[in-house]
Write a structure and sequence with these properties.
Elements lengths: L2 E3 L5 E3 H10 L8 H19 L12 H5 L10 H7 L1 E11 L1 H8 L1 H16 L7 E5 L2 E6 L9 H22 L7 E12 L7 H17 L6 E7 L5
Parallel strand pairs: 6-7
Antiparallel strand pairs: 1-2, 3-5, 3-6, 4-5
Helix pairs in contact: 1-2, 5-6, 6-7
Length: 234
């Protein structure tokens, strides 16, 4: 049996090593002595993200904090929402053509620009968590604890904050030289009869993606209203 030394001086048997490497197949591209450590770090980072550690690139929350973690745990009151329904808002911002920013100035600057975008989106909503929905798309969640009720003015505030953030970044970094545009959309989601708080995150993520795609394709504008019923009625 192969024994792998661990940072704390204990050993890990070869079956555990194989299982860990199978969870992170990308480490096969690394030199063999580095694979176990890289896979273990990735596993630790993934769990930290699920628990609410900021995304290292953008500073926003990782998607897993919403879909798998406890981000919405304290936003749900069973005594209220199991009867009156749970409502939240989302302001969604996507960088159009992010690939061109990366091609022009490199991925390191592109990563810094994504951080500037996440920071700018958070500015008008100081108590709303900002989640990185996917690579270049972010959503500010106007959850009950934010004290904000979604309104059309919030879209205008987001657009203006993104413009200011982009201008400040360009002045500081000298790039991107070309114009940068955003798809900014908004969703108000009501979930009727949610059984428990764990169902809220995956449903909210799915509806954010839906709202974003519709807006990006020009099929929706303003605040998109969605109601999901979990009480068995159609």
């Amino acid at each position: 049996m192969v024994q792998q030394p661990s940072p704390v001086g204990t050993t890990v048997d070869d079956e555990v090593v194989k299982a860990l490497l199978a969870l992170q197949p990308w480490v096969q591209s690394r030199p063999e002595p580095e694979r176990f450590g890289a896979a273990l770090r990735a596993l630790v980072e993934a769990e930290a993200s699920r628990r609410g550690a900021p995304d290292p690139v953008s500073g926003a929350l990782h998607l897993s904090a919403l879909t798998q973690g406890s981000l919405l745990r304290h936003e749900y009151d069973l005594s209220v929402h199991a009867h009156a329904g749970w409502t939240t808002g989302a302001v969604i911002a996507d960088v159009r053509g992010m690939i061109h920013v990366n091609q022009e100035a490199g991925f390191a600057l592109g990563d810094r620009f994504l951080r500037a975008v996440a920071t700018a989106l958070a500015e008008p909503f100081p108590r709303a968590p900002v989640v990185r929905v996917h690579t270049d798309c972010f959503a500010a969640l106007l959850v009950p604890s934010s004290g904000l009720e979604l309104s059309p003015e919030h879209l205008d505030s987001a657009r203006e904050a993104l413009r200011r953030g982009t201008d400040a970044f360009r002045s500081r970094e000298g790039a991107p030289r070309g114009p940068v545009e955003f798809t900014v959309s908004a969703l108000r989601l009501t979930i009727i009869d949610p059984s428990h708080w764990q169902v809220l995150g995956p449903l909210l993520w799915a509806e954010i993606e839906r709202a974003h795609v519709l807006a990006r394709r020009g099929l929706a504008s303003g605040i998109q209203e969605r109601t999901l019923r979990l009480d068995g009625r159609v």
